[in-house]
Amino acid sequence: MKGRGLGRGLGAILPVEEGLIEKSHSVQEIPIHAIEPNPYQPRLEFSEEGLEELAESIRLHGLIQPITVRAVGDRYQLISGERRWRAAQMAGLTQVPAYVRAADNTQLLAFALVENVQRQNLNPIELALAYKRLIEECGLTQEDVARYVGKSRPTVANTLRLLKLPPEIQKALKEGTLAEGHARPLLALDSPDMQLEVFRQIQSKGLNARQVEALIAQLTSPKPPKLPKGPTLLDVHLTDIARVLTYRFHAPVEVRNKPDGSGELRIRYTSAEDLDRILEILGVKE
User: Fold this and answer.
1) pTM of the predicted protein model
2) Would you call 48 a catalytic residue per the annotation?
3) pLDDT for residue 2 is more than 60
């Protein structure tokens, strides 16, 4: 999909005839009912409140910036400007100014993506899905995508990685209740359960991005191995007592201490005669 460079912009990657670009600079008035939405529109959600505000502006001033369409038979299909087209319908316009371009499905997706990226109208998940479609459906590389949307390749790669997050977190990104700067550190956690646990802490405690990074660093840092505890003074003392009693009774003696301060003293014997001998040493007579 390499075409002749046309300067900065989409033409540097997607082949577009120069004459076609010149023709698209002329604006035509098109019946609004003859226009269909772009099936490749990367933007999935439109704010009703925002559309109504734009519609009111169009009622007062008209549609100042033309939309861009392609001809499909006797109808037209949006390439970019769906928000303006929707608002123009709400405003009651019957015709809208439009640039008419020839574009295949690949270019249709690319044009719509570029417009939304440049206007910063996409939420992080919509943007990630649009990048994914450009790569899978248009055969572009991450470097290609980065070049014509004006982002670095690592930025494109990091945005694509957001699609690996659990659906609950992606939903929060789409709704704007979770910032991308809070979501990206979650990718350092291998477990979706851990990602969700930290996400819920972000929501419930109102953690800022730095606090999120600190929490994740704590969860991912290797824990030092537990070293065996050395003997305490009491352990040493009880060991000495057991050694002295073992020598005194000529029999194995164990002294065990419990956390509450109590304990056990055990003397082992090997036969009834051995028991009698130990009892005699203790001064116990039958």
Assistant:
1) 0.54
2) no
3) no
